[in-house]
Amino acid sequence: MVSPLIRRIERRNWILWGILLAASFMWGDWRFLLGAAAGGGLSLLGFRVLRGVVARVLPLPSHRARGRIVAYHYGWMGALFGVLAVLLSSRLVDPVGLLLGLSVVVLNLILSGIVDFRRIQTEV
Fold first, then answer.
1. Which residues, given as ranges, of the chain have pLDDT below 70?
2. What residues have CB less than 8 Å from 31, skipping those under 6 apart?
3. Dist CA 14 CA 11 (whole Å)
4. Mutual angle of helices 30-57 and 95-102, in 10-degree steps
5. Which of 30, 64, 94, 122 could form a disulfide bond with 35, CB atoms 3.0-4.6 angstroms apart?
């Protein structure tokens, strides 16, 4: 069962990625658009997989959970660096678009924190 907070964050991830893609499409450069699409897709995939890994390891004893989280991170970072190396070395994507796409989840978490903080302030 996924918490409402995680659902809200995932929904905002998709919305922010869609806004980035729409702005990239209007920008006109297909390499920038492809970079934003690839980076955002990788970022959203990483968030989704991490959510599943955390949900599976929470019931485990801490010493076993820690090892699985570390193994996940090493595997994900290796795969991510491999994909990024191929994308950048082939010059298919614009590095700035790729960086913006990879930042979708981080920007969303910052925005979510600001929005939730303001909501709490107005309630008090």
1. none
2. 91, 92, 93, 94, 97
3. 5
4. 30
5. 94
